[in-house]
Specification:
- Helices cover 35% and strands 23% of the residues.
- With 271 residues, it is of the alpha/beta class.
- The protein has a six-stranded mixed β-sheet with strand order 2-1-3-5-6-4, sandwiched between helices. It has a six-stranded parallel β-sheet with strand order 9-8-7-10-11-12, with helices on both faces.
- β7, α5 and β8 form a beta-alpha-beta unit.
- The protein is globular and about 55 Å long.
- It starts with a strand and ends with a helix.
- Bound molecules: 2'-monophosphoadenosine-5'-diphosphate.
Length: 271
């Protein structure tokens, strides 16, 4: 039985064991997947122990995704670009590969939802770790433009400058946004604090599609804003969660799981 895990702090809320056990069931993979709580001051020790005990791979979650950068022996290009690792994989040569499947998970979910990106005006709200992981994958879809808007403008400017070589990128402060966008993606953690972003109606046209990387039992403040504007196409990030897990599973097991039934089961579980 091959051993996998998710390591974070806190970790009890993690849905990853549920998702991966469903994936494993689809193709009868002989694997286990557990939650591991790492103390804030000993993530490296916990990870080392997991590796020494014969772990084959793991997911790394908040707040350790950047700590892993220096612990993985090899990094994928997308992990380097994201500046964070969410997946570790033991290679046949015995080295640990650090990867980041979050951006790929976002794109997979946008495609599942039929949200067009090529030639469209995209707005990314937020400029933290979640936004950084989304930049290169979004730009690879050839949007007409990707604008990053953040409460602290300097972080949006830095992100835009870092990814300018991948496509047309703009940046501004949240309260300076102008023009309408075809797709608006929220990567800020404002919802977690119950805060609504101060966004104006002029950012949207009737067909604007909005996507919140956050999810929860209750509608997020961002999606409530969109509903109150009368926007029809509104989606939370549960599909991204399942899709980034599917990408990790594929890396580990070489099998692409079917995300649709697992997403439905997870949605039902959370309601
Ligand atoms: P993550 O890894 O989840 O992206 P992060 O790196 O701490 O977390 O980034 C959080 C993002 O949410 C940032 O863009 C942050 O804006 P600032 O850079 O100005 O701090 C944004 N954010 C958090 N709370 C917010 C709020 N109440 N209103 C607007 N933006 C908020």
């Amino acid at each position: 039985m091959d051993r996998y895990a998710v390591i974070g702090n806190p970790i009890s809320h993690s849905q990853s064991p549920f998702i991966h056990s469903q994936f494993a069931g689809q193709s009868s993979q002989p694997m286990s997947y557990e939650r591991i709580l790492a103390p804030m001051d000993d993530f490296a020790g916990v990870l080392r122990r997991f590796m020494q005990e014969g772990g084959k791979g793991c997911n790394i979650t908040v707040p350790f995704k950047t700590d892993v950068l220096g612990l993985a022996e090899v990094l994928t290009e997308r992990a380097e670009l994201a500046g964070a690792v969410n997946t570790l994989h033991l290679q046949p040569d015995g080295r640990w590969l650090g990867d980041n499947t979050d951006g790929a998970g976002l794109i997979m979910d946008l495609k599942r939802l039929g949200i067009p990106l090529a030639g469209r005006r995209l707005l990314l709200l937020g400029a933290g770790g979640a936004a950084r992981g989304a930049m290169a994958p979004l730009l690879a879809e050839s949007p007409a433009e990707l604008v990053v808007a953040n409460r602290t403008q300097s972080r949006a400017d830095e992100l835009a400058a870092r990814f300018a070589r991948f496509g047309k990128v703009g940046s501004c402060a949240l309260d300076e946004l102008a023009g309408a966008f075809d797709v608006i993606i929220n990567s800020t953690s404002a919802s977690l604090q119950g805060d609504a972003l101060a966004l104006t109606e002029s950012l949207c046209h009737p067909q604007t599609r909005v996507y919140d990387m956050m999810y929860g039992r209750d509608e997020t403040a961002f999606l409530r804003w969109a509903r109150e504007l009368g926007l029809e196409h509104r989606h939370d990030g549960l599909g991204m969660l399942v899709s980034q897990a599917a990408e990790s599973f594929y890396l580990w097991r070489g099998v692409r799981p079917d995300v649709v039934p697992v997403l439905a089961a997870l949605r039902a579980k959370l309601e």
